[in-house]
Amino acid sequence: MKNYGIAIHGGAGTISKTNMSKWKAEAYRQVLKRAYTVGYLTLHKGGTSLDAVTEAVIVMENSPLFNAGRGAVFTHEGEHEMDAAIMDGKKLKAGGVAGVSGIKNPILLSRAVMQHSKHVIISGPQAREFAREQGLEFAPKDYFYDEYRYKQWQRVASKDQVSLDHDEELNKKFGTVGAVALDKKGNLAAATSTGGMVNKKYGRIGDSALVGIGTYANNNSCAISCTGHGEFFIRAVVAHEVSARMLHKHESLKEASEHVVMHVLPKMGGKGGLIGIDLQGNIVMPFNTKGMYRGFRNSRNEEFVNIFK
Fold first, then answer.
1. Which of 268, 260, 185, 275 is nearest to 225 (CA)?
2. pTM of this prediction?
3. Which of 115, 117, 201, 225 has its CA 20 to 30 A from that of 288?
């Protein structure tokens, strides 16, 4: 039987053991474990990699612990604008959304874009219209309200700064969640979702919604989901760069991903990490920050969840 498996992440950044309580760390681990378990069971029952990554991301979007969906950070205007993307490695089909609000699960909207539209990425208020046409669930503004997120926004807004959800003062992370999976039929898929930057302005869009940058899947190489300082990931075309190194330089997933995360990004000043899986079910989780919320489970009875290095 072919190997199959799933890996997930909940963001990377300056996550300090000394500043995180044991109960908070355990809360993160429990949600991470639930996310990859849901995805793994989908694969185990013969489900597709697309279904697995979708279900895993939904678990994290529904948790206020992560900067995606319910836990999305506040924009400069005090709103929640979310980005997401999903990609099918078999047909290289993809769907993404940028700057959407009020959608309970942006990853479901991304999948609807991929499967039920002629577009790859849609954005803004018009995306809400498409979501209604597709019968997707909306949530009221108070669903996205979190006291910690509100205070975080107030600290940043009072200084008129735009902040990643990761710095030492906030003891937080590059706020993104993602999943990559390989199913029993040998098909790869990737999905990523985020609430973006704290106090972001001007309709800023990061890497998560951009195919080949924050999200990529190709059955000839790998599936990748990124988390980090989006501007640097965009300039380095990170997710596709890993795939390209595998295809054209014949590097392994481990070699390609570590080169990009540990060498290419730092030279530019970029911080963050990624998760990846290849056709043999090999999983990688490189990051150049203090920590990354991450976990995986595969058909070889291997299971892992961690936050710190």
1. 275
2. 0.91
3. 201
